[in-house]
Amino acid sequence: MYKTAVSGVGEAGTMHENTNSPDQTDTESSTEATASDPATEEVVLSTSDDGIAPTVEPSTPVRFDTKVVVVLRDDLKAWQELNVTAFLVSGIAPSDEGLVGESYRDADANEYLPMLRQPVMVMTADRAKLASIRTKAVGRGIPTAVYTEELFSTGHDAANRAAVAAVPAAELNLVGVALRGAKNGVDRVVKGVRMHM
Fold it and tell me: What is the CATH number of the domain that holds 151?
């Protein structure tokens, strides 16, 4: 579910949402190929009006009509990347009622917490590009989570929100953002951003 890859957004090839392998065919030819073979028919997974995600067989390839992307500033330490990604995804999870799937269960019937039902793409950008992504996402009405550098020294949610509230949008010292929206809209906002390695 946490995905890194060599191919970036806007490069030749697209990333299947259910694999870590870049697909070097374009969307049209890929659609034709899957349409001709019922065994490889893909399901476009979208949330219904009542917020309930449809049930899909585990072996069915799935394409999502939305995309979740985390973009991290490219000068963070490893622990900071992990911390920021975790917090940003926690902001994305409640943004849509059908975004979180069902509880997990192992073969011994132990139950585990549910997680996001679609992949999370993780990318990196410099400070200026990160600010640009935030501006474009907010301008397009794409649900966005932000993490600023000041949050590394705060200890709870109220302090986090106060730190962000004290700074004008254009001056936010961003270390990461997360977006969740229509695939084409998110792709335009993060165009040219490289995948996390």
Answer: 3.40.1490.10
SS3 sequence of 17-81: CCCCCEECCCHHHHHHHHHHCHHHCCEEECCCCCCCCCCCCCCCCEEECEEEEEEEECCCCHHHH
| H helix and E strand count, the chain | 5, 12
- pTM for the model stands at 0.72
Count the neighbouring beta carbons within 10 Å of the beta carbon of residue 22: 15
Tokens of 189: 């906002």
**Which residues partner with 123 through β-bridges?**
71, 195
Q: Is the per-residue pLDDT at 31 higher than 80? A: no
Question: What own/partner pairs with CB < 8 Å and gap ≥ 24 does 185-189 have?
Answer: 185/140, 185/142, 186/66, 186/67, 186/69, 186/142, 187/9, 187/10, 187/67, 188/136, 188/140, 189/133, 189/136, 189/137, 189/140, 189/142
d(CA 104, CA 131): 37
Domain hosting residue 111, numbered range: 2-195
In total, how many domains does the chain have?
A: 1
Q: Mind listing the pLDDT tens digit for each residue in 48-90?
A: 555 545 566 777 777 888 999 999 999 999 999 999 999 999 9
Question: Do residues 34 and 41 lie in contact, with contact meaning Cβ atoms separated by under 8 Å?
Answer: yes
Neighbours of 172 (CB within 10 A): 19
pLDDT of 146-163, one tens digit each?
A: 999 999 999 999 999 999
